[in-house]
Amino acid sequence: MKRKRENVADTEPVVPEWKPERQILTASEVEDKESYKTEGSIELRIDRFADFVREEEVRYSAPTYIRGLSWEIQANCEETDESDNQDGQPPSKVLSFFLWCQRDSTNRPWECHANFSLRVIAQTEGVNDIVRENLEDTFYGKDNWGFTNFATCDLLAMDSEYFKEQFSKCEDNNRAVLQDVGYGEFIELLSVIYPISCPITAGNVETISKLAFKFNMAALLRQCEILLMKKK
Description:
Potassium Channel Kv1.1, Chain A; Apoptosis, Tumor Necrosis Factor Receptor Associated Protein 2, Chain A; globular; four-stranded antiparallel beta sheet; BTB/POZ domain-containing protein; MATH/TRAF_dom; 2 domains; TRAF-like; single chain; alpha+beta; two-stranded antiparallel ribbon; SKP1/BTB/POZ_sf
């Protein structure tokens, strides 16, 4: 009787070759992932610049998403006041451009601190770009969200001898009239004191130091001085 010879290849288990799993993302998933990148560039190209200057229109760049927030550049031309011109020169047109975060924001409160650089790229050979680097600012979802609740009279009096004296003179002890202070400036001041405590930056130090001096806020003024000394 002839013994059947077993084929080793037929009896050993077959081990499939391991291959790393490849992640396949849908178009929407790729777009969502791209929206949360940590840094990026925003570009605004202005065609027919002469028409743009003459028509005094406002233009916006296409939104660029960084950390899930929409960022845009706004550009427009403005005419200078005669008081800004030297030697009695007539008013001239200047280009203004701004960085917007969440321009069409909802009423939901949010806050974002950003570091950025601004650059106007020269279109003529041999002319240098106009550059402002190492800028930083804090962007808010609403100009005054939460400040009416957070900035109480007691907090202001704690930081400022001026407010402490003003509130002590008020009959109802919760109202004081401020002279020669813009609404936006005062909101910016409130944003850097406790409990909001946003940082003092190169973008707001001039306003904060002016108001800290005006309202006798010694600790805040010292913070401004330290920042200005570091810049030098």
